[in-house]
Amino acid sequence: MASVAEVEVVVAHNERTVLRVGDMFLKVDADEARGALEAEAMALAPLPTPDVLWREPHVLALAAVHGAPLARLGQPSTASPTAWSAAGEAVRALHDAPPPPWPGRSLDDLATRLDDECAWLVTNRVLPTDVVTRGRRVAEEALRPRPPVFAHGDLQADHVFVDGDRITGVLDWSEAGPGDALFDLASLTFGHGERLGDVVAGYGADVDLDGVRAWWCWRSLVAIHWLTEHGFDPFAPGCEVDVLRSQV
């Protein structure tokens, strides 16, 4: 009897489920518009992306890409400095491309989210008030007007796949749109700050490092609530709380 591919649950929560069946990934999204945007963003991006096999309402089928993630949050990266520099070069190519035609997230919305999440952290005593206050002070530096670029919007290191020193694919484009270049650089190096120099070397431009670190704090503060409610642990070594404390 021929072998049957197993169904692997990659991610599962009440907003999105990702399944792997052989060399195909099925992304089931509660928000149909998010799947449509992801497919369009991949078509526009000047980077290697997964092939779209088919799309139906709420479901996007993607081909697997070769290689392995550049890194995973909370784990040491085994990728070479050259691979990290290649990731920086790829991000620069994306940022040099024309921004997509849909609107990005406004600074007012980002500031409101920071306010709300900091209030939740303090009210529920998730973190000491002084840590939240100092982290918020740093994070507010990220919320400065900057020229929008074609931003990935969720460029975590485990969304960038490499084979040796070569970028083979960039995944998860559902947050793509006009945005701050520093946010992408911060997302890529989040929890792997020691690799920031390699990424900047590949990016090949002056980078506001304080702005990157400010986005590290912003992401830490706004993510903790969602993560705890969806079964993830932001207090795990090397994850959101550790990143926040390292900056404050």
TrEMBL record:
One of its GO terms (molecular function) is transferase activity. Gene3D superfamilies: 3.90.1200.10. Its EC number is 2.7.1.-. InterPro entries: AGP_Transferase (IPR051678), Aminoglycoside_PTrfase (IPR002575), Kinase-like_dom_sf (IPR011009). It comes from the Bacteria. Residues 13-206 form the Aminoglycoside phosphotransferase domain. Keywords: Transferase. Pfam families: APH (PF01636). It is an enzyme of class 2 (transferase). This is Aminoglycoside phosphotransferase family protein. It comes from Cellulomonas alba. The lineage of its organism: Bacteria, Bacillati, Actinomycetota, Actinomycetes, Micrococcales.
